[in-house]
Design brief:
Layout lengths: L1 H15 L18 E3 L2 E5 L4 E12 L2 E13 L2 E16 L8 E11 L4 E12 L2 E11 L4 E5 L9 E3 L9
Antiparallel strand pairs: 1-3, 2-3, 3-4, 4-5, 5-6, 6-7, 7-8, 8-9, 8-10
């Protein structure tokens, strides 16, 4: 019962503070409520650390983060960092109405609110508008839709990409 009470307190604390998971997806995503599902929750409101474990699903509008363990870090300005760990951890968001969902998978996914950056670490995969990126680490910058991909330390561990041809503009 205490676990459920802590989970409810954490959700209320996040919602009451007006915290937005990700401020850069669809414009109205940040105005949607944050929904969190997990098997357990460890809420430390004083330090601003919220740890959720057990098939964690965090959703806000079109944004979804999934992992075996997800930790949210917040301060007086709201959530500033999210770390999801899983086998794999999942991330998705719809950047605009006319854009496809961006999906990412990896052992660890880190989201940084201040620079709107998503890091996908270990067995990283990112799918964007039909393009695919795989590597040891992929950094996605949502505001600019820029992707940086890195291979591993060995020569065999390389970045792989499949890039779709751009459609010709109608004249």
């Amino acid at each position: 019962m205490k676990l459920i009470s802590n989970l409810i307190v954490g959700i209320i604390a996040i919602s009451a503070a007006g915290l937005s998971l990700l401020s850069w997806a669809l414009p109205n995503d940040k105005d949607k409520p944050i929904n969190i599902k997990a098997k357990s929750a460890d809420i430390d409101d004083k330090s601003g650390v919220y740890i959720y474990t057990g098939n964690v699903i965090i959703t806000q509008g079109t944004i979804q983060i999934r992992g075996d363990k997800v930790t949210l870090y917040s301060d007086s300005n709201g959530i500033n960092k999210i770390v999801a760990v899983g086998r794999p951890a999942h991330y998705r968001e719809k950047p605009a109405e006319n854009k496809e969902l961006i999906k990412a998978y990896g052992r660890t996914i880190k989201y940084y609110a201040t620079n709107e950056k998503v890091e996908v670490i270990t067995n990283a995969k990112l799918f964007q508008e039909g393009n695919t990126f795989t590597g040891s680490q992929i950094d996605y910058f949502a505001k600019t839709q820029k992707v940086n991909a890195k291979g591993g330390k060995t020569n065999e561990s390389r970045v792989e990409m499949v890039l779709q041809p751009r459609s010709k503009k109608k004249q």
